[in-house]
Design goal:
single chain, alpha+beta, Lipocalin, twelve-stranded antiparallel β-sheet, 12 strands, 16% helix, globular
């Protein structure tokens, strides 16, 4: 009985460690903040702010976008993909009108996605993570749900994983209880 319990504990720990390693080796995983100064929008209003969170899940990714639209309203949308090129539904509000997305991994740092409305292709998105893993660029080309052309290039800066990754947080330096 003790051997079985020990074996179960080892298997559980191994599986947990393997999930962490997969996430660490996936350049897409992390929290990314939209860099509006470096992004370009044509045919679509840029948001006031936006954050993209990418989480490793089994054979794929869960991607969540959240932010504040140009008109000041908050938005959120997400999808989960196995990176196999098959259509999966969006949940939430997609400003371009898409209701499904099909994402396929082309290379270690590159994916391509086709967003559709009622089965009709609206636009394609090519996503590339820089070799240093600090910046993601997305090139979006096609039309919105109203048939108007869009051409968007978004630049995303990877955010630190947590407080431990911030070298010199100013709050800690100025707090009266911290020398």
């Amino acid at each position: 009985m003790k051997r079985m319990l020990a074996l179960t504990a080892v298997v559980v720990m191994s599986l947990a460690a393997s999930d962490v390693l997969v996430a660490q080796n996936n350049p897409f995983v992390g929290t990314w903040k939209l860099n509006l100064a470096k992004s370009k929008y044509s045919g679509e209003q840029p948001p006031k702010s936006e954050t993209r969170t990418v989480v490793a899940q089994e054979d794929g990714l869960k991607v969540t976008y959240a932010g504040v639209a140009a008109d000041g309203t908050p938005f959120s949308r997400s999808f989960t993909t196995n990176l196999d090129g098959k259509d999966v539904p969006y949940s939430g509000t997609v400003s371009t009108g898409a209701d499904t997305i099909a994402v396929k991994r082309l290379e270690a740092n590159t994916t391509t996605a086709i967003s559709k409305k009622a089965g009709k292709t609206l636009y394609t998105t090519t996503t590339v993570v820089s070799t240093d893993g600090k910046v993601t660029t997305q090139a979006i080309k096609g039309t919105n749900a109203q048939g108007q052309p869009i051409s968007i290039t978004t630049v995303w800066d990877k955010q630190p994983k947590g407080w431990g990754d911030i070298v010199d947080p100013p709050v800690w330096k100025t707090h009266p209880n911290n020398p």
